[in-house]
Amino acid sequence: MKNKMFLLLLTVVFLFPKDDLFHFKFDKLSVNIFSDKLQYIPGDTGVIAVQIKLNKGCYTYAYTKEKNMDKPATIEITNNDALSNAVIFKQIIYEAGKKKYDEIEKSYSYIYDDTAVFYIPFEIKKSANLGKYKIYFILNYIICVKEKCMFNENNFNFDIDVGKKSADSNNRDIFIKYYKK
To answer: From the DSSP assignment, how many helices (H) and strands (E) are in the chain?
Structure first.
């Protein structure tokens, strides 16, 4: 019964506690999305932080440039015409994982076993129309519990608001690592 429960599709529960935070809860992890501003103006640059919190006892493989044999947790952005006419996304910055001996791979791997933050820098085109732009993300990852792993893909979205005035958010703490780079 546990194996069948483990293999069920993950259910998404949407909670919107703040205008600039979206929270998605999946079976073995939750995802919080933060923006550095509540509203952007044409020509602005910004950053979206995608925070992944894993349940106790779970881990996923981390993105790393030196070893890419594992299937690391990655984010894809699904573009649409309106979004691509307004926003230019830069290279996603993946937080470094912890080096740990992996019983499954029988070697050292980089993993996330608690919390990881991915930063998605972007630029609002000067020609962007005012309004909300919905960004669709796909989070790909392998979730592991002890020695059992399963590939997962979860979809979620976030709005970028382009208006006449720039407005900062209250989420500066999540961006400290990003701005130190």
So the answer is: 3, 15
CA angle 72, 76, 78 (to 5 degrees): 165
What distance, in Å, lies between the first and last C-alpha atoms of the chain? Answer: 47
Instruction: Report the C-alpha gap between 129 and 81 in whole angstroms.
Output: 13
H/E segment holding residue 6: helix 2-7
The answer to whether the CB of 75 falls within 8 A of the CB of 60 is no
Strand pairing class (13-18; 21-25): antiparallel
Residues in contact with 68: Cβ distance below 8 Å, sequence separation at least 6, in sequence order = none
Q: Give the global pTM.
A: 0.77
8 Cα distance to chain centroid: 22
pLDDT digits (tens, 9 = 90+) for 112-154: 888 889 999 999 999 999 999 999 989 888 888 877 888 888 8
H or E stretch at 84:
helix 81-86
